[in-house]
Amino acid sequence: MQTTIKILYISYDGMTDPLGQSQVLPYLTALSELGFSFHLMSFEKVERFSKGKSEIEEICKNANIVWHPQIYTKKPPVISTWKDLRTMNKLAFALHSQNNFAFIHCRSYISALSGLRCKAKLNIPFIFDMRGFWADERVDGNIWSLKNPIYNSIYKFFKRKEKQFLLESAAIISLTEAGKKEIIKQYSEINLEEKITVIPCSVNTKRFNREEIDDVELDKLKIQLGIKNKNVLLYVGSIGTWYMLDEMLEFYAEYRKAFDNSRFVFLTNEDPDIILEKAKGQQLYLDEFLIKSVKYSEIPLHIKLA
């Protein structure tokens, strides 16, 4: 009889976040069908969790994934993250004592801190799902200013830990071939090439198939949003940091010159005022903007508005 491989998957991103539904759950669901047994620990934003909890519970139940949602704390900065890390470690230890996991899959750096501790204390191997150079990205996105001594110290701490994650993990995942080359280049003194696997972000092409969208439902949505017979430019996702909002608005200013009766639709969970203030600064007409937060399951229909 085949022994089921039990895995603890730790994500500091929430499953009620769009990212969790697009870049975590589809993978775990498919792997579960192949016979792997997952316990999933995630950290959920309170508002999104209250709205999306039942939907994620249903997905996990159908895939035999045991979900352990924890509440993500945001304030005060830094201290709240360490508080969440303590919760992460405590739960990981408790779950392992009950399930004897074969390994832990750690999505990004905060989760990898827990993976490192579990390896040291419990001798469980962990996968470092690196995603990208997280500490550097936070500096590049002006989230951490190195002029601030606190953030400078945090940056140096995570760069030290980054090397430790790479050294001590059983396997490493990079999003891109370019990322893999950069890891090998930056840490040329360590032989990492054989344990790095490139797994890019991907999409469920069955779900995101224009041919599967019901045109009657699409027309209803256009009427509901007041954009029937409009030329729609559409953006999906986060804004701010490195997402080039200013440049998008500059592009829209040119777009509307070429296409009469235009509208710019944003599907985002961000504060609409951030977009509208920028648009105002570029002297764009605010009534041409539609900013909406939608469920992950509703995104394919909304994308076909464009």
List the helices and strands and how they pair.
Blueprint: E1 6-11, H1 18-23, H2 25-33, E2 37-44, H3 46-62, E3 66-71, H4 79-99, E4 103-107, H5 108-122, E5 126-131, H6 134-140, H7 149-168, E6 171-174, H8 177-186, E7 196-198, H9 215-225, E8 231-236, H10 245-258, E9 262-267, H11 272-281, E10 289-292, H12 299-303
Parallel strand pairs: 1-2, 1-4, 2-3, 4-5, 5-6, 6-7, 8-9, 9-10
Helix pairs in contact: 4-5, 5-7
What does this 3D model show about the protein?
This protein is of the alpha/beta class and 306 residues long. The protein is 47% helix and 18% strand. It is built from twelve helices and ten strands. The chain has helices at residues 18-23, 25-33, 46-62, 79-99, 108-122, 134-140, 149-168, 177-186, 215-225, 245-258, 272-281, 299-303; strands spanning 6-11, 37-44, 66-71, 103-107, 126-131, 171-174, 196-198, 231-236, 262-267, 289-292. β8, α10 and β9 (262-267) form a beta-alpha-beta unit. α4 packs across α5 and α5 (108-122) packs across α7 (149-168). The longest helix is centred in the N-terminal third of the chain and has 21 residues, at 79-99. The model has no long low-confidence stretch (mean pLDDT 94).
Trace the largest sheet across and list its strands. Answer: 3-2-1-4-5-6-7
Mean pLDDT: 94
Total strands: the figure is 10
| Count of separate DSSP helical elements | 12
Distance between the termini: 52 Å
What value does the Rg take, in angstroms? 22 Å
Helix content: 40-55%
Order of helices and strands: EHHEHEHEHEHHEHEHEHEHEH
- Class from secondary-structure proportions: alpha/beta
Q: Uncertain segments of ≥5 residues (pLDDT<50)?
A: none
Morphology: globular
Q: What multimeric state do the chains show?
A: single chain
Please describe the biggest sheet, giving its number of strands, its sense, and whether it closes into a barrel.
Answer: 7 strands, parallel
Beta-strand percent range: 15-25%
